[in-house]
Amino acid sequence: MNYTDTHAHLGRLEEAHAQLAALFEAGFGKILDIGTTSDDLAGRIGAFGRYPAVRFAAGIWPYPQAIADRKRMAATLEAQIEAAPTGFVVAVGECGLDHHQEQPDKAGERELFEAHIALAARLDLPLIVHSRDAPEETTAILRDHPGIRGIIHCYSYGVEEARVFLDLGYHVSFAGNLTYKKSDNLRETIRFVPDDRLLLETDSPFLAPQSRRGQPCRPGFIAETYTLAAELRGMDIETLKERIAANADALLFGQNP
Ligand SMILES: [Zn+2]
């Protein structure tokens, strides 16, 4: 059961504690719990900080109110991270660009994203990047801020975009949509990502893999994504699990033991 899940929203799971207790009892690996608002960190650490295999990222998803109120929101986020007990926060995010729906304030969205990038640089933490329907805009911003490491989470683009993100030094993380029928571009791209830059995630409670579609996703569902990823990469699944765990340790969990 030693899977690693580099992106989950544990506070949105039904009966999260029962799920986590069962998973860790069965030997599940580490989980990165992801923030989406400026003030959710303390509550998440309070709820899930008791699990040694759960660590935290803190960031603001680019929703309209956050973009409108970005200066105050970014300041709150920074204060929350600084107030957190040492060793719990291992990344900044999620944050980024979402153009799936019309984004009326792209300049404001960019500023909110760049506030996270500045914070990641100052705290020397990796960045968890959300990028949907905005590949050029995302790569342009990341290119303007070299030297940041991090994860392009729930990867949704093709090989050419992956090449750019990898060249910029980022890891690429695939979620359960890798298993969806229409996701040929993802199945092609996952073969292209080098072993040492690959990560896997659930984005629970979103994006349950194909056999569970329609259900709220859970970290335990990640086995289906690992199985397909191992097949696509021509790798033994145990080797893949070790590889992902090592990558996640090197980027995320190893820095605050
Ligand atoms: Zn997420």
Walk me through the structure.
- The chain is of the alpha/beta class and 257 residues long.
- It has one domain (5-255): Alpha-Beta Barrel (TIM Barrel), CATH 3.20.20.140.
- It contains ten helices and eight strands.
- The chain has helices at residues 16-25, 41-48, 64-68, 70-83, 106-123, 135-144, 159-167, 184-192, 222-233, 237-251, and strands at residues 5-8, 31-34, 54-58, 89-98, 127-132, 150-152, 171-174, 198-200.
- It has an eight-stranded parallel beta sheet.
- β1, α1 and β2 form a beta-alpha-beta unit.
- α4 runs parallel beside α5.
- The model has no long low-confidence stretch (mean pLDDT 97).
- It binds zinc ion.
- Zinc ion (ZN) binds next to loops.
Describe what is shown at a glance.
The protein has 257 residues and is α/β, with parallel strands linked by helices. It contains 10 helices and 8 strands.
Text of the CATH class? Alpha Beta
Oligomer: single chain
State the domain count.
1
Secondary structure: helix percent: 40-55%
Instruction: State Rg.
Output: 17 Å
Can you name the CATH architecture?
Alpha-Beta Barrel
* SS elements, strand count: 8
Strand order, main sheet: write it out.
Answer: 1-2-3-4-5-6-7-8
| General form | globular
What is the CATH topology classification name? TIM Barrel
Strand content: 15-25%
Specify the structural class.
Answer: alpha/beta
Low-confidence spans? none
**Beginning-to-end CA distance, first to last residue:** 22 Å
Mean pLDDT rating: 97
